[in-house]
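thread: overnight batch results

M.L. [08:02]
morning all. the overnight job finished for the chain we discussed friday. pasting input first so we're all looking at the same thing
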Amino acid sequence: MSARFQELDWRRTPLGELVLRRRWDPAFDREVHEIKLNDEFLMSSLFTVSEVELARLALAGLPAPLDVVVGGLGLGYTARTVLEHPAVRSVLVVDALAEVIEWHRRGLLPGGEELAADPRCELVHGDFFEMSRTGFDPAEPDRRFHAVIVDIDHSPSHLLHPDNADFYRPDGLRRLAARLHPGGVFALWSNEPPDDDYTAALGRHFAHATAEIVRFPNPLQQREATSTVYLARTADSPGAS
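M.L. [08:03]
and the structure it wrote out:
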C-alpha cells in the first residue's frame, strides 16, 4: 500500500462495510482521516468547521454546570469541542457503530484516546433515536440534560434510515423537549440549506427556534460551502432571569 494511503480498519457491520482510512492529501498538504460506509463517505477530517460550530452554537450562553448528550461520535470533533467548554460537567456520546467507539479508544483517530479517557465523557454504543424515546441514561430514564446535540442524519429529510423519521416529527420533538432542562438547547446539524417548515415545527414545540448557516471554504470545488445548524431552546423556568 502506498505511504500516501492506509486502510486502518475494515469491518462488516449490520449497516454494511465500514472502512477507516488515512491518507496524505497533497492539495491540502495534510493528513486526512475518512470513514466510509459501503460506497458512501460518512465523514472526513478535511471539513470539520460545521461539526465544531454545532457544539459552540449549542452551548453559547448556557450557564454552568452543563450535562450534555451528543448524538453521533464520528471523528469526535463535536464531542471534543463540547469538552473544551469550561462549563461542561458531563457528556454522554451515543453512536450506533461500536467499531467507531473502538477506533477512538484504540487511538486510531487523532484525539480519540484523550476523548475516551476524559472522566467527564461516556461513550455509549446505542441507537440514539431509540434512546430519545426511552431516555438517554438507562440508570435514570427521566434524567434531563442542558443540551442535546445531534449530527447523524444528512438532514431532517435525508435520513440514514427511515426509522429515524419520527425523531423529527411532532411526537419526537415533544419527547425531546421533555428531556431538556428549562432553558435547554437542542442543536441539529444538517448538510442542506435551512428548511423553513422544519424550523417552524421546532418553533411549535420549543420556546425559540432558529436556523444558522455555517459557511466554510471548499478548495476542492473552489467555492464556499455551507451547512445548517438548527437551534431550539425550551422555555426558561418561571422566575428565571
